[in-house]
Write a structure and sequence with these properties.
Elements lengths: L2 E6 L2 E6 L10 H16 L5 E6 L4 E3 L4 H10 L21 E5 L2 E3 L1 H7 L3 E5 L3 E3 L13 H8 L2 H10 L3 E2 H6 L5 E3 L4 H12 L4 H14 L4 H16 L2 H11 L10
Helix pairs in contact: 4-5, 8-9
């Protein structure tokens, strides 16, 4: 398997597992990533996802150039042959944490960008080298980077093709934390466990509002937020959260 999927409790871990190729993405990996994301998205028992890479050298070094680029060229007018993933076309409204355990370059950075929270090991590097190949990012970097970091820094990454280190990624807001590599797994797990303690429906609705609101005028985004807020008022989880607060106890959410 090029992608491992593991569900433990409410936490699903998706691991890109081609360490011999720096976890680069070939066609098989892209298809297995599609299957793993569907499994996470559609399983009501999976509340939080983690994406990481096997080994400690690479999160993902990007597309497998020898195989993936010819495939994408051949599928230029047959987009249905390219598996949907959160990189393109697929929406996943559950929270996703990226455990960036090494280089995240090209498509690897774009996989990191689909994560809502990014925790980086100290030796991680981030970059968009596509311009060195005569192409440009094609899995979302030109759109997501400008929504996450200042536009000028996004342009610097995309235009120069040069990578930045984890400390610079933290400084510009690309990652939430930088930790020693031997602490990455535990820190990511702690983030996931903490997110499992709050309302899963609240998290999903908040993520939907944030992502869909990107492309909306402010007044339309406020209407979307209000609609999702009103939906949550009718859920069992809201009743549980309210009762737990009033009775000074820990809530037991059920995603209902």
């Amino acid at each position: 398997m090029s992608v491992d999927y593991k569900l433990e409790g409410k936490i699903a871990t998706i691991t890109l597992n081609r360490p011999e190729a720096y976890n680069s993405v070939d066609i098989k990996t892209l298809r297995e990533l599609h299957d793993a994301m569907i499994a996470f998205r559609d399983n009501d028992d999976a509340w939080v996802g983690i994406i990481t890479g096997a080994g400690d050298k690479a999160f993902c070094s990007g597309a497998d150039i020898a195989e993936m680029l010819p495939f994408l060229k051949a599928a230029e007018h047959k987009q249905w042959e390219v598996p949907e993933t959160p990189l393109r076309f697929m929406e996943v409204n559950k929270p996703i944490i990226g455990a960036i355990n090494g280089m995240a370059l090209g498509g690897g950075l774009e996989i990191a960008l689909i994560c809502d929270i990014r925790i980086a090991a100290e030796h991680a590097r981030f970059g968009c080298p596509e311009v060195n190949l005569g192409i440009m990012p094609g899995w979302g970097a030109t759109q997501r980077l400008t929504r996450i970091i200042p536009r000028a820094k996004a342009a610097e990454l995309v235009f120069s093709g040069k990578p930045i280190n984890a400390q610079e990624a933290y400084r510009i807001g690309l990652v939430n934390e930088v930790v020693p590599k031997n602490e990455l797994a535990a820190r990511t797990q702690k983030w996931a466990e903490d997110l499992c303690q709050v309302s899963p429906l609240g998290l999903r609705a908040a993520k939907e509002a944030m992502i869909r609101g990107y492309s909306m005028p402010l007044d339309e985004g406020i209407k979307l937020e209000s609609a999702l807020f009103n939906y949550l008022l009718g859920t069992e989880d809201f009743k549980e959260g309210r009762d737990a607060f009033l009775n000074k106890r820990k809530p037991e959410f059920k995603a209902k």
